[in-house]
Design brief:
Strand content: 5-15%
Mean pLDDT: 91
Structural class: alpha/beta
Radius of gyration: 20 Å
Number of helices: 12
Low-confidence stretches: none
């Protein structure tokens, strides 16, 4: 098991995702989720002196892991702006793009960031903790209808309306600022040995995190930018962790757009700017899943620009 730094992040499907880029030694590549730098370092190890890697991350903590290499450029930004930044650096086309979506090990383990319900911490959940609304602000300021939509659309919770109603009623007495307060409002007993509450809380936290960071909109924009930037023969290598992310990536590979609207030519042949390199998604083997629990829900899709 490879760890990026002492405790920061364990890269998922490291070899498989980088192998999928089919790296050319003099190529230009982008890692849109730098994090602990594990995938970026592996890409750099396969580049020659004329190759270059641009890595994106909006989290200030990730900057501590910046690689000292002339072939490397760190971009302090959300990956949704990939086209603007490549234009800024004078890059018209790239040879490959890698994305390891979701939340890093570091975020889950840092109790001050509020990404995990294992800790009684402030409900923050911002990837970029220098800007934007926190999860607490969303819980306290959104209308009941807005909260229900967030839980249903991003957490796929069937009882989203009941959860929203419970939260709105409780916040009339006091603002909900921490994990402990949210658990109490929802009537969750953390000592419950069957652990069923954890599945619901995971969905609630996922929904809040996606809303806080505008993750789905950012992913749509990044995938659109990747489609424009990848040269013919370039590779797209994306690791997803839940069905909402995976659906968008699958649609782009299948149809060239995140909506999955397939166009056909005069002869009825499907038109798409991508060709999947395999008909099956790649998942971590049993050993990786045992060593890194975060990898258990991971799916890797690889496609070539045609």
């Amino acid at each position: 098991m490879i760890v990026d730094t002492e405790t920061y992040h364990v890269p998922v499907l490291l070899k498989e995702s980088v192998d999928g880029l089919d790296i050319q030694s003099d190529g230009i590549y982008v890692d849109v989720t730098f994090g602990g730098g594990g995938h970026s370092k592996e890409i750099l190890s396969r580049l020659g002196s004329k190759g270059h890697l641009y890595s994106f991350d909006q989290d200030a903590d990730a900057e501590k892991n910046i690689v000292n290499d002339d072939r490397f450029t760190f971009v302090r930004s959300n990956f949704r702006y990939i086209e603007n930044w490549m234009q800024y650096y004078g890059v018209d086309y790239i040879d490959g793009l890698l994305a390891d979506l979701g939340v890093s090990s570091h975020h889950f383990d840092d109790e001050t960031r509020g990404f995990s319900f294992r800790f009684d911490a402030p409900l923050d959940m911002r990837m970029n903790n220098r800007a934007g609304k926190t999860a607490a602000e969303i819980l306290n300021d959104y209308s009941e209808e807005q909260l229900a939509d967030v839980f249903y659309l991003y957490g796929e919770l069937k009882d989203a309306r009941r959860i929203a109603k419970t939260i709105v009623k409780a916040r009339q007495q006091a603002r909900i600022e921490t994990t402990g307060q949210l658990l109490k409002v929802l009537g969750i007993d953390v000592d419950n040995t069957n652990g069923l509450w954890k599945k619901d809380m995971a969905k609630i936290y996922q929904a809040l995190r996606i809303e806080v960071n505008h993750e789905m909109d950012a992913l749509r924009e990044m995938l659109k930018g990747a489609t424009h930037l990848l040269r013919k023969g370039g590779r797209l290598s994306v690791i997803t962790y839940h069905s909402l992310e995976d659906r968008l990536v699958k649609n782009v590979i299948k149809a060239g757009n995140t909506e999955g609207k397939v166009e056909q030519d005069f002869f009825g042949r499907f038109l798409s700017p991508f060709k999947a390199t395999s008909n099956k998604v790649i998942v971590p083997n049993e050993q990786e899943q045992a060593e890194n629990p975060r990898s258990r829900s991971a799916k890797l899709r690889i496609a070539e620009r045609i």
